[in-house]
Amino acid sequence: MRSSLPSTSGTFQPLRHRSGSMRDRLHGYTKRTLGAGGSINEAVALPAGESCAGWVAVHAIDFYNDVSTLWAVMATDPYLKSFRPGEGFPSGVEYRWSDGTTKETVSVSAPVYIEKVLHWIAEQINDETKFPDDDDEAEALRVFQTPQFAALCGQMFRRLFRAYGIIYSSFFGTLEALGMAPHLNTCFKHFMFFCTEFGLLPEREIEPLEVLVKPIRKQYYSAKQSLQSK
């Protein structure tokens, strides 16, 4: 699985699931569930007989694609260059960047932070030592089930959540004017339902967006209770 690194225009290309692969099978399950009128709760639930680690892995790719597609709408806007380091983040927080090679963190603007997140996630997914191709499904699952991979995916989901926080805090109005607010809200709801289902986000990460997240979580638990009572 290659590409998806920044193109010459500065945007990101979605990652594709190779036909016939485990990732394609799991991705197809979600599409079929939602396409057949299934609920988001049903779409995020682990399919019977599938690996939880593989399920999380394929969703890391799908949620990366959602954010990169949303950000591509904004990426060429000259307005992004008006943000200084430390600006554009949710109220009361500043997400500082670290590439993981050192403990040093760097103050960047919110748009630069999103660019770095997307580039970093693409690099991780394109590195077969960290995110193996699933030609050999057994070997891929072996890697997916390691503590190192769980930690990597946890960091991916935390950073994607932060990207959503920035988009809602500083760019919601722009996306709303472009008619993309419903798509943004649907993507974020799907993301939060999945993260809630599998406990992927620490509470401290959620706090800056608590006003937005609380009603979505309420919907998740209400819908889950309805499904369980059937």
Instruction: Report on the biggest sheet.
Output: none
Query: What is the multimeric organization of the chains shown?
Result: single chain
Query: How would you describe the shape?
Result: globular
Helical percentage: 55-70%
Task: Explain what you see.
There is one protein chain. With 230 residues, the chain is mainly α. It is built from nine helices and no strands. The protein has helices at 22-35, 40-44, 52-74, 110-126, 137-144, 147-177, 181-198, 203-206, 210-228. The longest helix has 31 residues, at 147-177. The relative contact order is 0.15.
Quick rundown:
By secondary structure, this protein is mainly α. The protein is built from nine helices and no strands.
Write the layout of secondary structure elements.
Blueprint (H helix, E strand, L loop, with lengths): L21 H14 L4 H5 L7 H23 L35 H17 L10 H8 L2 H31 L3 H18 L4 H4 L3 H19 L2
Helix pairs in contact: 1-3, 3-4, 3-6, 4-6, 6-7, 7-9
